Amino acid sequence: MFSIYEWAALIGVLVVSFVIDHLVVDRRPHEFRTREALTWVSIYVGAAFAFAGYLSLRHGNDAASAFVSGYITEYLLSIDNLFVFLVLLTSFAVPRELTHYVLLIGVVIALVLRGVLIGAGAALIHAFEPSLIVFAIALLWTAVGIWRSKNEEPDPDGNRVVRWMSTRLPFTPGYSGTSYRVIVDGARRYTPLLLVVFAIGTTDLLFALDSIPAVFGLTTESFIVFAVNAFALMGLRQLFFLLRGALGALENLTKGLALILGFIAVKLILEVVAAYRDGVPTIGTLTSLVVIVSVLAVTVGVSYLTRSRQSRKTQEHHVEDAATPGQAITGLLGDHDA
Predict the structure, then answer these.
(1) Collapsed DSSP state (helix, strand, coil) of residue 322
(2) What residue numbers bound the domain in which 79 lies?
(3) What is the pTM of this model?
(4) Chain mean pLDDT for the chain
(5) Which pick of 194, 231, 232, 247 has the fewest CB atoms within 10 Å?
(6) Structural domains of the chain, count
(7) Rounded distance, CA 162 to CA 157, Å?
């Protein structure tokens, strides 16, 4: 369905965007501000929807709906990635001016690894279509886990790749700009920068085990699955800077994400059963898009109302505390006058 030229164009756009991002943003390492992050998030989200427009014109509305559904789902799943990024960057004491560069290289590694997984998943589905049931079970398991999770922080020391590197290679105690390797007393040493970019890239692979089956549940076209992951990861770095101060307010979205994954799992099961039994209803791509957007809108609204209610209670509590000393003073004055 998708030509080799479209694959080449997509990969070419990715390479060019990363090169421009690196040359424009990281030519002078600096702390990423909210306004700059908002600008880049808008650019990447706009590019994703422009791509959806191309799919609609070239391949029809079903392809565009599948891409948008997958893109929204992937972005929701990426919220967990943001928590992981925050923990890793803090654990490795990454200077703020190097944060964007670290995320850029880590995302490149993650995208390459995800590409391998997508290729393997597409080959498995092509060879044995009922294997989609395995994807559905994995999604249901993930949905239950997310619903019951208590947002535990990940353990950076649990990454085996990083542990292996730290015990096999000599590292310096501090960073040296964007250098991965330096000479200290005539000996070659590696900086912690090498560890942290591999930590981000390889840790992201664990989240891909959830997100890639979710997108395959919306479409079995590997081109769209890869495009969804590519566009989501491209804007993920800027989303981190935009939401870094508000990550705690997004925890309520996990319930909505669990519902979306459960819905996709049901959609997959119905499609597999319908392939072997007539009369079994299936869920179309446009319906999937409507359901995903609706769940997202409801959970965002609930999160906002919950946050506002907690904020009002906190303010009322502060007002009561602030009034207490005054009341005490008034009481003392009254007693004295008496």
Answers:
(1) helix
(2) 4-337
(3) 0.71
(4) 77
(5) 247
(6) 1
(7) 8
